[in-house]
Design a protein that fits this description.
single chain; 99 residues; alpha+beta; disordered N terminus
């Protein structure tokens, strides 16, 4: 599920994660929403993979293994995208100029 919020000149795209959609997948889905790219084509169209910037499995474990996900907050910068993970939601905003 995604929606965009008003945030200065760069919109923020939100995706939720759950047991079926790990946080690492939600991050890529949100970046793809920012760039209007199909997630299947993401590595080629975006020019990077999440694994080049963070260990997706470790990130998923950090979030999944915490019994109270409301206490987990992770901020990361991935290839020009500012990501914030909290409360079963991923917010992604481009911090570079749009193509």
């Amino acid at each position: 599920m995604s929606s965009d919020s008003d945030s200065s000149s760069h919109p923020t795209f939100e995706h939720t994660y759950d047991d079926e959609t790990p946080v690492s997948t939600a991050i890529i889905q949100a970046v793809c929403a920012v760039e209007n790219v199909d997630p299947v084509d993401a590595p080629a169209d975006l020019g990077f993979t999440l694994y080049e910037h963070v260990d997706p499995e470790a990130l998923d474990r950090i979030v999944k293994e915490n019994p109270d996900s409301a206490d987990v907050q992770v901020e990361l910068l991935v290839a020009g995208y500012d990501g914030l993970i909290r409360n079963e939601q991923v917010d992604v905003q481009s911090v570079r100029y749009f193509r």
